[in-house]
Amino acid sequence: MNNKVNYTLVGFLVLVGFTLMLGFIYWLLQPKSKEETTQYHINFNESVLGLNIDAPVKYRGISVGTVTSLKINPRNSEQVQVLITILRTTPIKIDTVAKLTAQGITGLSYINLSLGSREKNDLLCLEGNALAIIKTAPSFFEEFEASLGSMSTKLSSTLTQTEKLLNDENQKQITLLLQRTAGFMDKLEQVLDDKTIHHLQSSVKNLDSMSAKIDSMTPNINRFIDKSVQWEDKVAGSFDSIMASYNVIAKSMNEFKRAIASDQFNIKDIAGDVVPTVNNTLLEMQEVMIRLDGMIQSYERSPGDVIFKQEEVKKGPGEK
Q: Are strands 97-102 and 80-87 parallel, antiparallel or unpaired?
């Protein structure tokens, strides 16, 4: 029995199997035909450190292709031109942007395609370009670096202004201000001793008491105003009565003059009409004057009763 093993044949079979396995894996990962893919250019204005060939290209987190080549843009040496190959079914719109995104803490990067409204038109190749160019957006590190630069500039400006503010002359003024403030606080502490605080508290209490008294007097003041208005109305009514009486007298005298002027003077007829009228008018005037005089005497005798109470009429013996 021959136990010899042909190791050359075994090694050959292993290599063939390994090659077939790699080919199968590559066949699974790559699109089935060239017609199913399309290519775009991306011009980055920032460093593409960490981005390598065959790095994944993702559309909103979904892997849709790979990076095919990296080179300096022949039309602008400040840009890095990246060629990507992605599935033709990927919806690349005119507002789609490409952004470099870090893959965790590995230091490697990939291209993430985002935005792209459904209502927008598809991105087309412009005249004079071999491929359509996708717009770019600053990466997180680019924005962070820009913010650091702006922050550094502002911090430097702040330090410069602070240095100008804290010069020798201003430091002397600040020291003097602090000393005066300390002296003022010492004097204020001496003034505001226990006795002064007690006086302030007493003043506040007196002010509260005064406010309470004013509040209690408010209804009396209102009554005084109301009664004053009533008194003024009575006086006005009295004067109206007097004016009416004078008007009647004036009318009577006019009739008397007219009768004399027209030679129709008949003292008997005129006296029959005028004398009763004048008599009634004089009686009304006398009554009005008596009432007015009584009101004035009552007000002069006890004006405080108008605010607080009515004057009590003193009754004679036997009156109830």
A: unpaired
